[in-house]
Hints:
The complex is a heterodimer.
Chain A: H1 2-25, H2 29-51, H3 61-94
Helix pairs in contact in A: 1-2, 2-3
Chain B: H1 2-21, H2 26-51, E1 54-57, E2 68-71, H3 73-96, H4 100-122, H5 126-144, H6 150-181, H7 186-192, H8 197-214, H9 223-228, H10 232-257, H11 264-287, H12 291-315, H13 320-354, H14 365-368, H15 370-384, H16 390-405, H17 408-432, H18 446-465, H19 468-474
Antiparallel strand pairs in B: 1-2
Amino acid sequence: MMTTQVLYGLTACVIVALGLRGALLHASLLQRVVAINVMGAGVFMLLIAVAYRGPGLPPDPLPHALVLTGIVVAVSATALALALARRLHAEQDND
Amino acid sequence: MTDAMIGLVALPLTGALATLLLPRSATAVAVGTGLATTVAAGLLLFGVATQGALHYEIGGWNAGLGIALRADGLSALLLMMTSLVVLAASVYASAYFSADSTRDRFWPLWLLLWTSLNALLLSGDLFNLYVTLELLGLSAVALAALGGKRAAVAAALRYLLVGLLGSMMFLAGVSLIYAGYGTLDLAMLRRVVEPGPIAWTALALMTTGLLLKTALFPLHFWLPPAHASAPAPVSAVLSALVVKAAFYLVLRLWLDVFANVVTPVAANLLGLLGASAVLWGSWRALQAERLKLLAAYSTVAQLGYLFLFFPLLLALPPGPTRDLAAGGLVMLALTHGFAKAGLFLAIGIIQQRCGHDTIRDLDGTAQHLPATTFAIALAGVALIGLPPSGAFLGKWQLLAGAVETGQWLWLLVTATGSLLATAYIFRVLGHAFGHRPYPNQPVTVAREEWPALLLAAMAALVLGLAGAPVWKLLEIGI
């Protein structure tokens, strides 16, 4: 059904907006990292909604491949952010 | 010649793995890789000049499913600049790092950064552009944190978060494009994209993400701390190349792929932001107390000039005047790349030999480090835009375009920015040639000074005196 796709697409846009708001407004580092991940989840959901081609039809595989790559990138970036945050924390303890 | 395209990505990637596996001979491997990659960039430039735009489908998978590599005049020129700057900075870095542990971590990341830069400039579809942007961002952040001090780590973390936010916005725009047009291939998009809510929203999202990464005023706040606290060769490449990779994408999207979607109002907005960047960046550079901060704020200003071209190019009808202006834009970007890299390398020498980079305490530097001071002066000539630097030609075309289209505001901004640049460069030179004499023998550090001098001379002399082929190459589109 077309409306399912639209529903998923709109929800994805709301999630992106929520993540963006959090990334811009939160002061705490960890909250901002989480917010950027929420935004990423929204973008991925948008891509999955785009892949829907109608009932009974197989979905478009290309957006799925993009989402998989995107998840790998997001996980690596989050790991780097957390590693840097830990290093910063350790340095602060030393001072 | 398609071999050269593969080499440009495969060579530095192999080099990165090799330096990771063989840390003892990493420096030799890295410089060797650098030479080979530069040869590949030269071959590609030659190939594009003689055979026109090049195209290669990796593994024979056609566009849409596989990864397509493309090179036209613009990307071949930027690849050549990237190779020369990274090669020079690699030679410099081989003498710069004294601690083994830092050096071991430096080379793999350094070559990975180079791989992602080259891959970005060769990518022919939006999703690969997203992936290469992320790879570039991750390696750049890791390199920026190598300084190890708390300020460097904090700046790198902020750089990472801003970069991630930018990438996510870019990816959101990419998803909209796929929803609207069913393709991500740039060559196909160029034919099917048309003005409308989808194209406008997608372009706005992608552009905002890229402007964050290219640090256009007022999204520049993360750049000065990140560029000023990184090790010298890293600062050089971040300021000269990494921000320019995101700028290259803005250029590609606005003037090429989405050329019929862009409106004059949007281009004027970019121009206004660019003008603010020129004035604010130059003003802050004039007030900076440390040389590295001066160089970083100067990058904010110099990127601003590039955006002044957008309203001009949109107002000019297609024809020789527009081509001249577009060439001026690329010339300015190339000159800034070489000049800023040379400047950061020279500042690194001062920081190491004098133990500080405070502008007020530079007295006697001209006697202490004559070749380094000369490199700073040469880079300064190019940053101000004096003849015979490439920036002179670029700014000349900027002024000519402003007069031609009657957009006088940009003329005023360019003049004010250049005066401010003169002031901040001469403030440094004034201190360096200060009255307090340096009692000891002058020092030369060849392996660090040659790269800085050659890069600065490239910007101040070679591009200005032998820059005509740039315009010829830019006629070769995809």
